[in-house]
Write a structure and sequence with these properties.
Layout (H helix, E strand, L loop, with lengths): L6 E5 L3 H12 L3 E6 L10 E5 L5 E5 L10 H12 L3 E3 L6 E3 L4 E3 L10 E3 L5 H7 L4 E5 L3 E7 L4 E6 L4 E5 L1 E4 L8 H6 L6 E3 L7 E6 L6 E6 L1
Helix pairs in contact: 1-3
The structure holds flavin-adenine dinucleotide (FAD).
The site of flavin-adenine dinucleotide has 28 residues, from helix 1 and strand 2.
Length: about 220
């Protein structure tokens, strides 16, 4: 493989960004992940709370499990299983009815296996972000991308105007960083402003390994 980009910034340490970073690093590309949250996981994050009687409680506040019907994804999951990052969930799933304080709507056994992260759903992202060839920077919100024609590189800046370095490839794993919907919802401009000149390459890799999004997209704009 002769990669065009050798140093790539990945924005977001959710499952898309983490899997993408891992795939790039395995192909010899130097990767830096920038994540605005304190830790990895995104919508597969794990939260910690202390109860009134001082007990520590952990819970997954996004996806509780995932399934796969794709052979490539299943091969990847087997690798995660071998590393002890995920396990098949063999118990029932139900919904908790707040009014009756009872579990209802127990799911019948589905066709696909259900997997959960061990000990929490963020375990996969956490492990992937620590793989060789990947540097992970948390608590950093990328605020601007600028293509520097002379340098043949992207210059990244955080929301406070702090320089984050230059990269010859950028992966934005969260479309809301660009989306106009961000403005519709918040009334503010999207956090990621992009300054682009002619003759640039933006590689947008979107790796989504969930049942309702099973597709991988590689676009050259
Ligand atoms: C309550 C809930 C239940 C769900 N249940 C299921 C389920 O049962 N099964 C299933 O398959 N899926 C489920 N999902 C969906 C699943 O969690 C998401 O599809 C998936 O986790 C999205 O991953 P992602 O990496 O694409 O995005 P995200 O997890 O959103 O990751 C994007 C990351 O980018 C970071 N970021 C964004 N902008 C910037 C910036 N400018 N600079 C730095 N960092 C930035 C964000 O902080 C975030 O961590 C559920 C989601 C929720 C919320």
């Amino acid at each position: 493989m002769n990669p065009i980009a050798t140093k790539v910034a990945v924005i977001g340490a959710g499952i898309s960004g983490a899997v993408c970073a891992s795939s790039l690093a395995k192909n010899g590309i130097s990767v830096t992940i920038f994540e605005s949250a304190r830790g990895p996981g995104g919508r597969m994050s794990r939260r910690r709370e202390t109860s009134e009687d001082e007990r520590e409680l952990y819970f997954d506040h996004g996806a509780p499990y995932f399934t796969s019907t794709n052979n490539d994804v299943e091969e990847m999951i087997r690798g995660w299983e071998a590393r002890g990052l995920v396990a098949e969930w063999k118990q029932n799933f139900g919904s908790f009815d707040f009014n009756t304080k009872k579990f209802v709507n127990f799911e019948k056994e589905g066709l696909s296996k259900k997997y959960v992260g061990i000990p929490g759903m963020n375990s996969i992202c956490r492990a992937l972000c620590q793989e060789p060839g990947i540097e992970s920077k948390f608590g950093v919100m990328v605020g601007r991308l600028e293509w520097l024609e002379n340098e043949d590189s992207w210059s990244l800046t955080d929301v406070n105007g702090q320089d984050l370095g230059m990269f010859n490839g950028v992966v934005a794993s969260d479309k809301s960083t660009f989306s106009q919907r961000f403005t519709q919802v918040t009334g503010k401009p999207p956090p990621l402003g992009i300054s682009i000149t002619n003759n640039f390459y933006l590689y947008l890799f979107l790796f989504i390994y969930f049942d309702w999004f099973l597709q991988s997209l590689s676009q050259k704009l």
